[in-house]
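re the bet — no i am not wrong, look at it urself. input seq straight from the record:
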Amino acid sequence: MPQHRILLLEDEPAIADTLLYALGSEGFEVIHVTLVSDALAVFERRAPDLAILDVGVPDGNGFDVCRAIRKSSDLPIVFLTARGEEIDRILGLELGADDYVTKPFSPREVCARVKAILRRSGTKGMTGAPATARTGTMLQLDEAAQRIRCGGEPLALTRYEYGLLATLLKRPQRIFSRSELMALVWGDAPDTAERTVDAHIKLLRAKLRACGLEAELIQTHRNMGYSMQATR
């Protein structure tokens, strides 16, 4: 199989060297740049399979790169950030990032997350007889492949979008409170605020609408939480 190509935007030499070694040891081809302008040039010319973007670099930030990429591509994106503010993480996820890692971090954890994201975003068809949850005949959940299909086509979902939609799909009509969804989907990010759930519901509704489903398929229950409408 062809080697996965990773775009790494990171201006701190020590962090960049650690990631270059860890990702290289896992068989990835890593293209390292330190400037936004160079990252955009690599995206246009080298067609990476995933981008790891530092939030703060000398000529801008990773958010600028993410915005530019999202105008034309669903390229998987992971943010690296030293910031602790919740608003930064929410902004990154709302821009379409698949994951974020807060410094200091374990290079092995970054590699594990990169491999998981690439598996979810792969283009190979499902094999065997996957366990599925269905909403009507349009939405199909394949937990083994960590993928949700709409009308037979895989939805382009970030890590947390997938977790949130899968949770709702598996229990249609069951109302989940925000705190329940936080525990089930964001269990590895305990410092994330509950309003992140609302932001992701908004993004999911837009993606469901884009593939021809009703935005109201995910129902809001005031002062209670969210549920998935059961359809036939």
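see?? Confidence is low (pLDDT under 50) at residues 123-137. told u. also Helices lie at 13-25, 36-46, 62-70, 86-94, 107-120, 159-170, 178-185, 195-210. so pay up
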